[in-house]
Specification:
Layout: E1 11-21, E2 26-32, E3 42-43, E4 45-48, H1 55-67, E5 73-80, E6 91-101, H2 102-105, E7 116-119, H3 130-145, E8 159-160, H4 161-172, H5 178-187, E9 191-198, E10 206-211, H6 216-219
Parallel strand pairs: 1-6
Antiparallel strand pairs: 1-2, 1-4, 2-3, 2-7, 5-6, 8-10, 9-10
């Protein structure tokens, strides 16, 4: 097969921003880079796209290697291609972000890459342009959360209102009044109350809820009542 003449060849990589929620705090999964430059420093999990795979396949392979997981929420975020972003060789990276319920998956990490969960708001300095990737993922998550039930990918199938409030506060980096949050979230028609309580956090306990997927499409716009203007988050 002929090749395009007089064209420079680039490497293509994928990098995964893996976010998890433990019921109280939003966290990011990082690894220690295993090669120079920046060996031993904290990095997103990534790898080069192989000749026989597409971008999505490569991102799913990287996630599987690190967490042992597949069929979880993953979305392509953005491409990063500044000429000097990798000091070794010209590399274009396609970033993905993944959302996990951390209570399910925190024990499935590969030990090979020295992976560790950090608070998203207090994670260590990252190599190359990985911090830029993380910041863009945060903005995209905030915007999409106003239009789709994306944040529920970070929750267990059943959850309490305090857990849901903590998640919104972590994502939007703001505090919500407890009474107002409960009243407004229930007024959206997005949740179904279960006849079951979580009693580990307090003696009284808090009722569990689940997302009403059947009626979400009809009610999703109601969530705009109590989150920041999504058009300002891009």
């Amino acid at each position: 097969m002929n090749k395009y003449s007089k064209q420079t060849r680039f490497l293509i990589a994928v990098d995964c921003i893996i976010l998890g929620f433990d019921g109280a705090e939003l966290k990011i999964l990082l690894i220690k880079r295993g090669l120079e430059p920046e060996q031993g420093k904290w990095s997103l999990m990534g790898g080069f796209v192989q000749p026989n795979e597409g971008l999505d396949e490569a991102a799913n392979r990287v996630l599987l290697q690190l967490t042992g997981l597949d069929k979880v929420y993953m979305e392509q975020l953005h491409s990063f291609g500044e000429p000097g972003r990798d000091p070794i060789e010209r590399t274009i990276s396609v970033a993905y972000f993944t959302l996990l319920d951390l209570t399910k998956y925190k024990t499935q990490l590969s030990q090979e890459f020295e992976a560790e969960w950090f608070l998203l708001k207090k994670h260590p300095k990252l190599i190359f342009d990985h911090e830029q990737m993380v910041q863009l993922a945060k903005s995209k998550l905030r915007y999409k959360a106003s239009l789709h039930p994306i944040l529920f990918e970070l929750l267990a199938d059943k959850f309490t209102l305090p857990q849901l409030q903590s998640l919104f506060e972590e994502v939007y980096e703001t505090a919500f009044d407890k009474r107002n949050f409960s009243r407004k979230i229930m007024s959206t028609g997005l949740l179904l109350k279960l006849n079951e309580k979580e009693k580990e956090s307090s003696k009284k306990g808090a009722y569990y809820y689940k997302l009403d997927k059947k009626h979400y499409k009809a009610n999703f716009h109601n969530i705009l009542r109590f989150i920041p203007n999504p058009n300002e988050l891009l």
